[in-house]
């Protein structure tokens, strides 16, 4: 059974973060696994497959050849890439042609000089930013070519460098396997070609699901062709204790998968030697409304069944006898022939590498609904830091709006760098809303009874944030009120942290001093302060929490909170003397993941939300992750992690290094060689600079010559950075041209 997931989407739903992974798009079919880069930072996952053609590959330059053929070799076979593109919702590949007296598509009327070869060895005569059958470049479609008579910048045949580039996004034609460049045989003709990696987004197979509503509900498909080998995998979710998943009959032969009881899955078949049954028993009930994965395989040698990560059950085939499974009836998914069908959800049903479209079939079948609900019961735990799991028709997402975090799992810090004198104020109520409405909605948890406007006060606060700085004393955070009450987190003149509460009833504010720890050491520090009535709990970094108590005379109500300040306090009325002193010059450094009760002031400032109207900023806020260690899902140990690839990756002689953590001897040797090379280059540079200053006159004239032939700045960047195309989005097309 495959130890790899079928797609990047599957890795994402195991809570994995962006990285290189081995995926096996057709299960244990003939394709075999391939290594791809999975980018999990957006709602939909991007899968990227790389090739070996350098960016800005030069062709031509006074060459005599009529055609120059550039071949792209990928880290995967064409069939493997097709498996990815066919199951994706959208794919794209960047392509760029920089030219000097070298025409591209020969618009408006002529035969193209240059073309590219895609899937199935077909030639294509359209370019990036355009589509099939349209012999134009991006500028021709957007009508902004340098010479409006042509539909490509390069077709104007200028002596200066020009460029045509854009995304190819007709996925049935991808990937680009060759670029054939034609107009190079005249003196002075030159061109440079860049092709980005193939990037695909979304996975139509992973969430393709159907819900079986009654025990007689079923879907039928054409007969399963699995004479000598069968490989069936799917996920199921149910609260029923038994039911048939699928069945296909012949005269006497058959193949069947069913949930026999709440803890048993059965795989049975007959190829003419009498029925064989393999049963996997689970120690825990399988009808717990969570997703479970089933993988059943049969070939002429043996048959096997696996459920989740439970041990694989294997049965050897008899040495003599029949080996061909001969089926005639339709394939039934769900109830078949009067048996009790499966109640619940089946998704991602693959038979011999092909995903059956349960969703489409369910749309026209009574008793079966397309899609599935209740993904949050299985995956909600991946929404971290108070993010809420939101059910979607095909999957789930994490709603991070009530948190100080961002990203698909609410684990990405939202932070900002404060320069000296900068500050941010978050008003708890904005003009035009009644104090009562807003404050009770955001500052009080829903469990608190509603408090009327003038009497609004807090019995408890929860504050958490991360900071790093090297300058002190300073004010990190301050909560002001319409009364004398305040709360502050400060770094005092000795570089130690101080939490200060003034809720009335005491002569002096109540201070919690954390001595013996320099907090202004430039490292990220995390502060969590929770107050409930008189009790205060403080947790600093990874140290155990410590408890404090407000003095007996102190009031325990934080009356009429007004605003929260970061970096500096700019408030009218009387202000605490120490805080006034610490206010100048102000905080310099980084603050991130700031949260006060339900409010995330920094996030409101950096991400346009309905709370952004409450924010006022002095100075320019620059977003930064502040080097704060993101709270990731703790990694499994190599022993328990079924996707730990050290041992497995050694078997595949594909491009790219195996995905391991170990630093091997080779890298040490390479490091040494690089150090020597850098040293040699530095010595040469010193020598050259001295030489240049001796010949200052000639140096200046050389510079001028170089400037004429230099290409645009962005091409120079692309030259140096192979990942540059990754960052080019639609909105920047004009800028590239």
UniProtKB/TrEMBL annotation:
Fibrinogen C-terminal domain ranges (all copies): 1-51
Domain EGF-like residue range list: 373-411
Disulfide-linked positions: 345-372
Stretches that traverse the bilayer: 668-689
Any one GO biological process: cell adhesion
Locations listed in the record: Membrane
Pfam families assigned: Laminin_G_2
PROSITE patterns: EGF_3, FIBRINOGEN_C_2, LAM_G_DOMAIN
Chief site of localization: membrane
Positions of the Laminin G domain: 208-372, 440-626
Membrane topology: Single-pass type I membrane protein
GO cellular component terms given for this protein: membrane
Protein name per its UniProtKB record: CNTP2 protein
Species per Swiss-Prot/TrEMBL record: Dicrurus megarhynchus
Species classification: Eukaryota, Metazoa, Chordata, Craniata, Vertebrata
Gene: Cntnap2_1
């Amino acid at each position: 059974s495959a130890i790899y997931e079928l797609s990047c989407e599957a890795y994402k739903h195991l809570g994995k973060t962006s990285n290189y992974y081995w995926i096996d798009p057709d299960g244990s079919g003939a394709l075999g696994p391939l290594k791809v880069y999975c980018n999990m930072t957006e709602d939909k996952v991007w899968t990227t497959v790389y090739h070996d053609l350098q960016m800005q590959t030069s062709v031509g330059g006074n060459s005599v050849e009529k055609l120059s053929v550039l071949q792209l070799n990928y880290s995967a076979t064409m069939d493997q890439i097709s498996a990815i593109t066919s199951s994706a919702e959208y794919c794209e590949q960047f392509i760029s042609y920089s030219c000097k007296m070298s025409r591209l598509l020969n618009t408006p009327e002529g035969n193209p000089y240059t073309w590219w070869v895609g899937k199935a060895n077909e030639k294509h005569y359209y370019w990036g930013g355009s589509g099939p059958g349209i012999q134009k470049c991006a500028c021709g479609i957007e009508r902004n070519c340098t010479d409006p008579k042509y539909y490509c910048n390069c077709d104007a045949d200028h002596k200066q460098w020009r460029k045509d580039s854009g995304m190819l996004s007709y996925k049935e034609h991808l990937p680009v396997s060759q670029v054939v460049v034609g107009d190079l045989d005249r003196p002075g003709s030159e061109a440079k070609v860049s092709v980005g990696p193939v990037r695909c987004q979304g996975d139509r197979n992973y969430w393709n699901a159907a819900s079986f509503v009654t025990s007689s509900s079923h879907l039928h498909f054409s007969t399963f062709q699995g004479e000598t080998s069968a490989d069936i995998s799917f996920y199921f979710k149910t609260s029923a204790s038994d039911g048939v998943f699928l069945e296909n009959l012949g005269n006497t032969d058959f193949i069947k998968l069913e949930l026999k009881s709440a803890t048993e899955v059965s795989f049975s078949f007959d190829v003419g030697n009498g029925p064989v049954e393999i049963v996997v028993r689970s120690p825990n009930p399988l009808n717990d409304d969570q997703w479970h994965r089933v993988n059943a395989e049969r070939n002429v040698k043996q048959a096997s069944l696996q459920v989740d990560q439970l041990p694989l059950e294997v049965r050897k085939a008899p040495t003599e006898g029949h080996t061909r499974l001969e089926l005639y009836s339709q394939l039934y998914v769900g109830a078949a022939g009067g048996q009790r069908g499966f109640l619940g959800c089946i998704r991602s049903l693959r038979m011999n590498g092909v995903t059956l479209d349960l969703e489409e079939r369910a749309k026209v079948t009574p008793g079966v609904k397309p899609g599935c609900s209740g993904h949050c019961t299985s995956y909600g735990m991946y929404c971290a830091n108070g993010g809420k799991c939101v059910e979607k028709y095909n999957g789930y997402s994490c709603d991070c709006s009530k948190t100080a975090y961002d990203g698909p799992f609410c684990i990405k810090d939202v932070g900002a760098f404060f320069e000296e004198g900068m500050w941010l104020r978050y008003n708890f109520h904005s003009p035009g809303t009644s104090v009562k409405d807003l404050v009770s909605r955001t500052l009080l948890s829903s469990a608190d009874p509603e408090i009327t406007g003038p009497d609004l006060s807090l019995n408890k606060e929860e504050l958490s944030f991360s900071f790093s700085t090297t300058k002190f004393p300073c004010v990190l955070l301050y909560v002001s009120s319409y009364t004398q009450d305040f709360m502050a987190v400060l770094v005092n003149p000795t570089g130690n942290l101080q939490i200060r509460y003034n809720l009335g009833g005491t002569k002096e504010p109540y201070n919690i001093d954390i001595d013996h720890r320099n907090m202004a050491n430039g490292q990220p520090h995390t502060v969590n302060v929770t107050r409930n009535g008189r009790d205060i709990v403080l947790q600093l970094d990874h140290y155990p929490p410590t408890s404090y108590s407000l003095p007996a005379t102190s009031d325990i109500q934080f009356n009429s909170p007004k605003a929260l300040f970061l970096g500096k306090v700019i408030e009218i009325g009387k202000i605490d003397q120490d805080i006034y002193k610490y206010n100048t010059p102000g905080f310099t450094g980084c603050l991130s993941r700031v949260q006060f009760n339900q409010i995330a002031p920094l996030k409101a400032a950096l991400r346009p939300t309905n709370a952004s109207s409450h924010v006022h900023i002095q100075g320019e806020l620059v977003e930064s992750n502040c080097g704060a260690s993101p709270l990731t899902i703790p990694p499994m140990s190599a022993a328990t992690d079924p996707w730990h690839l050290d041992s497995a990756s050694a078997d595949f002689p594909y491009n790219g290094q195996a995905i391991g953590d170990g630093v091997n001897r080779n890298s040490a040797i390479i490091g040494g060689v690089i150090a020597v090379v850098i040293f040699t280059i530095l010595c040469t540079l010193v020598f050259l600079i001295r030489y240049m200053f001796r010949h200052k006159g000639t140096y200046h004239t050389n510079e001028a010559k170089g400037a004429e032939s230099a290409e645009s700045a962005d091409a120079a960047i692309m030259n140096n950075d192979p990942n540059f195309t990754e960052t080019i989005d639609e909105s920047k097309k004009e800028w590239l041209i």
